[in-house]
Design a protein that fits this description.
CATH class of the largest domain: Alpha Beta
Number of domains: 2
Distance between the termini: 7 Å
Helix content: 25-40%
CATH architecture of the largest domain: 3-Layer(aba) Sandwich
Strand order of the largest sheet: 5-4-1-9-10-11
Number of strands: 11
CATH topology of the largest domain: Rossmann fold
Largest sheet: 6 strands, parallel
């Protein structure tokens, strides 16, 4: 059996099936908060207590959920092929499912970093408070890429995608950039498998197969097919 390099781009839909609330609803709100109040440098500057509590709630919720069939399917796939996960999600469900080679585009909920030095990053499992300081004595903030901030891992993600033999998109509306632009780095012959119960339309010259199903339903079936490929 030939070993393929497979890149899996995942979004909120795959985590939602584990019970994690999606980042925002159709009104652009998250638990009645304007997104910019809790996910932007300006929001942090204006009300750091609100921002910290917002992410503390999400962190507490993360401890209550488990990986689902889609996460576990990726774990199975990596037994047979070289698999890299590029995720827009900030949870650790991929890692807890045993997924290797996970690249987090938008940061990680279970980490904190200095607000002055983004290289000072710490594992952080519990609540983060205003009294929690980094080694440089500056306030710790969530290790999350907020709106208006650079996405430092996007170059690494683009390189992975450019080398992919197979590209799988799971649980993302392909509306958030720069992640949505990753399809532009694919080799022309690389097939795309797109799994989403409500898939968006996006432009691509690559062979495309769409599965209008939930991740936990379609991904295990696709993985079974790719294992035999």
């Amino acid at each position: 059996m030939k070993k393929y390099k497979i890149v899996v781009l995942t979004g909120a839909g795959i985590s939602q099936e584990s019970g994690i609330m999606t980042f925002r609803d159709a009104n652009g709100l998250w638990q009645n908060h304007d997104i910019m109040e809790v996910a932007s440098p300006e929001g942090w500057h204006n009300n750091p207590e609100l921002v910290l509590e917002f992410y503390n709630q999400r962190r507490r919720q993360l401890h209550q959920v488990q990986p689902n069939a889609a996460h576990l399917a990726i774990t199975e796939l990596q037994k047979f092929h070289e698999v890299h996960v590029v995720t827009q999600n900030v949870d650790d469900l991929h890692e807890r499912a045993g997924n290797k080679n996970v690249l987090h585009l938008h940061g990680e909920l279970l980490k904190a970093r200095s607000e002055k030095n983004n290289q000072l990053i710490y594992e952080w499992k519990n609540d983060l408070n205003l009294s929690d300081l980094a080694d440089d004595d500056s306030q710790l903030r969530p290790h999350i890429v907020w709106f208006g901030e650079d996405v430092p891992e996007i170059k690494n993600a683009a390189k992975l995608v450019s080398e992919a033999d197979i590209f799988i998109i799971v649980g993302t509306g392909m509306q958030v950039y720069p992640a949505a632009g990753l399809v532009g780095y694919l080799k022309p012959e690389t097939p795309i498998y797109y799994i989403d119960p409500d898939p968006s339309v996006f432009h691509t010259q690559n062979p495309l197969q769409v599965f209008e199903e939930k991740a936990g339903e379609a991904l295990p079936k696709l993985v079974e097919k790719l294992i035999k490929k």
